[in-house]
Write a structure and sequence with these properties.
- By secondary structure, this protein is α/β, with parallel strands linked by helices.
- The protein folds into 2 domains: 256 residues, Aminopeptidase (3-Layer(aba) Sandwich), CATH 3.40.630.10; 127 residues, Alpha-Beta Plaits, CATH 3.30.70.360.
- The chain has 10 helices and 17 strands.
- The strands form 5 sheets. The protein has a 6-stranded mixed β-sheet, with helices on both faces. A 4-stranded antiparallel β-sheet has the order 11-12-10-13, with helices on one face.
- Helix 3 runs parallel beside helix 10.
- The protein is elongated, with a radius of gyration of 24 Å.
- It starts with 7 loop residues before the first helix and ends in a 5-residue tail after the last helix.
- It binds zinc ion.
- The site of zinc ion (ZN) has 5 residues, from helix 3.
């Protein structure tokens, strides 16, 4: 089928058919999008992952010398393994009210609506540019978006505002938590467990550090800093641990991973600093008195900041004017790339079709009504960008 004639539902079916599970290649999907853009003579820029198996896609439609509006979404989806689906997750099933398939709401639905508007966008000359930013590996910590933002930070002209199309049932969401995650490797000295004073027990020191992280969680939990979140404080969590080889050997190494999901008003760097301080200035000196080569290493696995958009900001007034659903949504606990874009001066909010309740689950769906609302919003956006030159 020729791309020019496809509506959002037909494009969604095509997007769902690409298995773009995080950490696997998204290049076939990116090629498909690129071809659609090519048909409308829209130039694209790809920003690849290190191994070049995945890519972010960036495109500007309209004048390239003023800011404009960015539409952003991730192309990856969460795995279907271990989930009990009633149909093939990669073959879109069209019901009366719902379109079912992996990524239907999170968040290929939004991308489909954007792409369905292309004929309209390219047929008209825009006075305000529209930028497309489609990223990879969002679901594992905004990995692709982070790289895209690094590239965009060098652009002479950047988008002024951005809509992130995560599923919010088209409500405008102004805040979400940030997240940072680390792998910690504690290295001590092994020996026969009958002579423990000759060794440095890595598992036990890791346990002390984990207890410290847990105590931080208890402390912030008591503060209940922000009641606009269903979990009204930053959270700390250790998700896995691995260490030791046998009970009669003092373990040399222990590895664990932790994450912090911070309220946007609480800087994750400060919280991480407290943990590192305890590791390096309290635990490590004690370990090194018995074994100078002992170490505690921190490797950052992922990072994105929280989002806290001011209700009075331009992006909200702008989105209200184009969105058929005029509703400000509650702050959400899931993360998006919005905070990353915000850091380079692109004011963002989160607004997209479908509900987070259906995301990541078997028989994920987006309702036709939601998709139609999103189509309408994009149509209104195009109309406005055609009529007025804004963000000069
Ligand atoms: Zn998502």
């Amino acid at each position: 089928m020729n791309g020019v004639t496809m509506n959002s539902e037909q494009i969604l079916a095509r997007l769902i058919a690409f298995d773009t599970t995080s950490t696997t290649s998204n290049l076939q999907l990116i090629d498909f999008v690129r071809n659609l853009l090519d048909e409308h003579a829209i130039a694209t820029q790809l920003v690849h992952s290190d191994d070049r198996s995945r890519a972010n896609l960036y495109a500007t439609i309209g004048p390239d010398n003023i800011g404009g509006v960015m539409l952003s979404g991730h192309t990856d989806v969460v795995p279907t393994s271990g989930q009990d689906w009633n149909s093939d997750p990669y073959q879109m099933l069209s019901g009366d009210q719902q379109l079912i398939g992996r990524g239907a709401c999170d968040m290929k639905g939004f991308i489909a609506c954007v792409l369905a508007a292309l004929p309209q966008i390219s047929a008209e000359s825009l006075k305000t540019p529209i930028h497309l930013a489609f990223s990879y590996d969002e679901e594992i910590g905004c990995v692709g978006a982070k790289r895209l933002v690094e590239t965009m930070a060098g652009f002479e002209v950047k988008p002024r505002i951005g809509l992130i199309g995560e599923p919010t049932e088209m409500a405008m969401v102004l805040g979400h938590k940030g997240k940072v995650s680390y792998r910690v490797t504690v290295t001590g000295l092994s020996c026969h467990s009958a002579y423990i004073s000759n060794g440095v027990n890595a598992v036990e020191y890791a346990a002390e550090l984990i207890a410290f992280i847990r105590a931080m969680n208890t402390r912030v939990q008591q503060q209940q800093l922000d009641q606009s979140y269903s979990v009204p404080y930053s959270t700390f969590h250790v998700g896995n641990i691995n260490g030791g080889t046998a009970l009669n050997i003092v373990p040399r190494q222990c590895q664990f991973e932790f994450e912090i999901r911070n309220l946007p008003q609480q800087d994750s760097a400060t919280l991480v600093h407290d943990i590192k301080h305890y590791a390096n200035d309290v635990l490590l000196p004690e370990m090194q008195t018995r074994y100078p080569e002992a170490s505690i290493e921190f490797a950052e696995l992922s990072y994105y900041p929280g989002l806290r958009t001011d209700l009075a900001s331009t992006v909200i007034a702008y989105t209200r004017a184009i969105n058929p659903i005029d509703r400000i949504g509650d702050n959400v606990s899931f993360g998006t790339e919005a905070g990353l874009f915000d850091e380079i001066g692109i004011a963002c909010l989160v607004c997209g079709p479908g509900s987070i309740d259906q995301a990541h689950k078997p028989d994920e769906f987006v309702s036709r009504a939601q998709l139609a609302n999103c189509d309408q919003m994009i149509e209104n956006l195009v109309q406005r960008c055609r009529e007025a030159s804004e963000f000069a």
